[in-house]
Amino acid sequence: MAPPRGEVLQGTLDLIVLQTLHAMGPLHGYGIAQRVQQVSEDLLKLNQGTLYPALLRLEQRGWITSKWGASENNRKAKFYSLTRTGRKQLLAETRSWERMTALMARLLGGTEGA
Amino acid sequence: MELLRIFGARLRALFRKRQLDHELEAELRAHLESLTDENIRRGMDPKEAAHAARREFGGVEQTKRLYRDQRGLPFLETLVQDARYALRMLRKSPSFAAVAVLTLALGIGANTAVFSIVNGVLLHPLPFANADRLVVVGESEDDRKPSTTSFATYEDWKTRSKSFEDLTLYRQWQPTLMAPDEPEQLIGLRVANNYFRTLGIRIAAGRDFAPGDDQPATRFVVILSHALWQRRFKSDPAIVGKPINLSGVTFTVVGVLPVNYESLIATDLRASGVEIWGALGYDAALRDACRTCRHLRGIGRLRPGVTVTQAAAELSAITYQLWKEHPTEFSSGRAIVMPVYEELLGGVSRTLYILLGAVGFVLLIACANLANLLLARATHREREMAMRAALGAGRARIIRQVLVENCSLAMAGGLVGLLLAYWMPEILSLVRAMNLPRLDQVRLDWHVLGFAFAIALLTGILSGVVPAIRMTKMNLQTALQQGARGSSLGGGGMRSFLIVSEIALSLTLLLGAGLLLRSLVRLVNVPSGFEPAHLLTLRVSPVGAWYAKDEPVRDYITRANERIRTIPGVLASGTSSQIPFGGNFDTTGLHIDGKMNANPALDPSAERYVISEGYLEAMGIRLLRGRDFTRRDAQTAEQVMLVNETAAREIWAGADPIGQHVHVGDPKSAPRTVVGIVDDVHHYTLDAAPTMQFYIPVLQTDTSDLVFAVRCAGEPSQIANTVHRAMRSVDETLPVYRVTPMSEYVAATTANRRLALILLGSFAAIALLLSVVGIYGVTEYTVAQRTREIGIRMALGAQSQEVLRLMLRQGLMLSSAGVALGTVFSFTMMGFLRSLVFGVAVTDPLTFLCAAAILTAAALLACWVPSRKVMSVDPIIALRHE
Q1: Nearest to A53 among B10, B26, B70 (CB)
Q2: Exposed (0-12), middle (13-18) or buried (19+): which is B667, by Cβ within 10 Å?
Q3: pTM of the prediction?
Q4: What is the pLDDT of residues B426-447, one digit of tens each?
Q5: B177 Rama class: left (phi>0) / alpha (psi -120 to 50) / beta
Q6: Which residues pair with B592 in a beta bridge?
Q7: Virtual CA dihedral for B617, B620, B622, B627, nearest 10 degrees?
Q8: pLDDT at residue B692 above 90?
Q9: I need a labelling partner for B13 at 20 to 30 A (CA). Which of A89, B115, B308, B486 fits?
Q10: Alpha carbon distance B153, B138 (integer Å)
Q11: Contact B31 A1 (CB under 8 A)
Q12: Could A60 and B10 be called an inter-chain contact, meaning their C-beta atoms sit closer than 8 Å?
């Protein structure tokens, strides 16, 4: 399904979620949403609901797992954590992302210089 | 791999829907509550905080829907929904469902049944390793089929050719198992030691033949089939190494074949079911190993990468060379290489594929019929569909709904149809005496199940697609307004087209069945040259040391015939070395004084019968001129023979053969005098012209095969036991077997044609039935639709007879159009039947007229029955009719 306009691209959202879980350890959906907004300093306007289908997608692929637990304020919440394949996937995607940004930087840098 | 994991996760989710929904609910609620808490902390009042939380979160229901789509298999879920709905709809109209399911069951069942035969006989791989590299090799007279060869030629082929990984040989063998309680004639083969290795068969117990077994002195070893081992040796686990007595000679069992070995290769298709294999044990010095002793059949395994054409070219060149080296021992010097598959199954594959094509027509007719029913129903469901469309169902969604409904019907029909395939082995065993090889392989397996499923699906879609599209083409407003008023769909043209196609296909099937029926009648009425009714045949093997000489055999024949003739009800009795349709062939060269070729191989050869006096009378073979044999035609008397009419005509061409001298077999042998001419008999098949034949008295030659022919006043089966006992009383050590009425041998020659007729006949009957149902349905529908119109007509003074005529005219038009279309279609199809048709042209006008007449009559009847209703229409009621 194509993402609604003004929101993050699907692949990017996946990468962000994986990176967040990598940095923060096991986290519930609310926590992930807060963290994403915090880090992006509200640059990314994330419709928090879209996070859940994304989490399910990552889980179906075996990149993350989920477990019910208690949140900080003692609410029942589902905690997501990175799996081994998820870690590998994150590494691979980070690399390809870096290559892409490097390429874009070179291309765009060239334009600026002209 | 990953896709599979995702699919698995989604599939699993389907079964835990409720719990997962519950969890999602809890998770989202927790999220919203946390957001609200956060907002309160920032200083909002609770109500405002909750609002803001929802805003930040986005649509909760939307999230849930996206989540569910991601979680399960939405396509499958709606499919199940549709199917459920479909079943509910069908339950509401059980008569429609019953007719539809029955129609489909007939179509799918017939197709599945035929496919199960094709699957077992043709598609099931041959039971040999790399069967595609196995070929039959042989010398050839006609360049079409490989024939027999000789040991000397085989040896030359083997040393000179490079195309074959292995070449092997086999010959016919019918040893008698000498058991004290019940001696039995077995069907066997004598095979070269590499036979099973060439075929790629492993021996289950014991060992394979070894080169050491394959010598004249050491050849007395045998391998048993699993069935024979069970049947006659009580599955003796220590059978290997044990001696058994075959025709008075001791053989050693060296091995038993695996249970799944299919005994396909035999010297003759009718003699399939080989149960025992002995070593060939030839060497070049043997009398039977001579180059003109062509009684062996060859099988080769091609080297990888060598094509049949290459191998054939090489073998032909070698054989041509051999002819140059031994000019008097070949007539043509040609050889043929043919894939084993073609040799074993080529003959039946054409018939089976014709039947598969024909049964495909039945399926098309069933499809057309169902489509017709659906179109009729579509008009009733117009409102429902309009309602759905008005409520927002997309066009694709409605089409899918209809197709799912239809496929559910087809699946139900397929299930009923599968029963037929399930019972196919039993049905086939009921239609006995068939010559199809591998019928034991016909069973309900995964291929058949898959086929049934696939054609059920295909049928569902094929028959549903037109009505489905039509249903979505309606105008919403008028449909909702018109409601029960009748139809805005029309569809009359489409329905007529379907009916016309049905009739056309039915005509083709009827015509095919008719042609086969006429062929069979023609064939059965072909004069066979003898009288098969009231004729019993029995075989005897004169085995044992006592019968090694000719005199005791002749003595046995004379005494047994005398004993049989004393039985009340026996009219005549005689003995021959072979009987027509018996599956034997024994041709011998005839060298006529004054007409001999320089190369004796080019002299005519004819079917040889060694007979006792009384045989011609018992068989009912007419003596045309001259005299029959008597007891006085003994060893010391003048050597005599009889020839049949064909031989007389072809050899002597108008001159009188009686009194002429003929050297039989060896051109240097003492000549025989022709003393009479007898009628031709058909020896192999009824549909080919009789071959040249001659008879010599058993008192003047030797034979090891004996068939007794006994003509009786009543049914042969009634005196079978008495005759059997009488023969055993002459010598109880001799096995008497194949006690069979002659009529069964004759019936076996037409068995495949009868199978084709039975199947094609059933298809035609089903087609006719379906067409009648189709026409009935259309007419009934038209009557219902036009009741109002008819009421007006009658109110205006039309006679009910006239109205009836109006309805019948519609039926007549449909059937005429169908017959016309079917005629054109049939003429293009009937060419395929040519190989099955005998004695009638495939464009036979009588058959055609009958088929057209039957079809038209049935169509008019199907039209007349529902039309009669209009006769009783009361105009007042009709006018009110909606």
Answers
A1: B70
A2: middle
A3: 0.73
A4: 777 766 545 667 777 777 888 8
A5: beta
A6: B662
A7: -10
A8: yes
A9: A89
A10: 10
A11: no
A12: yes
